[in-house]
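Re: Re: token formats

Sure, here are both.
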Amino acid sequence: MKYYVYQLTDPRTGRPFYVGKGKNRRAWWHVETARKGRSTGNRAKETRIADIHAAGLEVTVEITEWFDSEAGNPFLRKMGT
């Protein structure tokens, strides 16, 4: 399976704060990029990740679904991609 839907979860609340689609290391890119102090293009997400790290915690990255192709992913169709 090549493509997936993922969520970033705040360990302080146990609630997801970002849901996305990706392949390869995309799900972890947000956390890695924010940790390096670079922009991810989403300031609210960057702030949440920084706050989690400042509390001495790590963002939980969870792959929720896998797909063989983007066309087979209903989440992507719902997003209009």
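Second one below.
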Amino acid sequence: MPEHPAALLLLGVARRNSGELASAVEVLSALARAHPQWPLAHYEQALALSLTDQHLQAIEALRPRHPAAPADGGSLACSRR
């Protein structure tokens, strides 16, 4: 099912809801790694991690995944003329 991320998300949530926490963490962590820009995958991963007392990993899972800031320190703000 790796080519069906929505199905994997539902599988992970179902395992979390049924108390299969280790399996939920496994499924949701793999999903979050495969789809680093999908916030819902990271949110569900964080929920499962927190339920297994992996609080630092849960916080890390919620950190934004975005391209690095400009190397020159430039601003993305609009300039006024």
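The longest helix spans residues 21-34. Confidence is low (pLDDT under 50) at residues 69-81.
- S.
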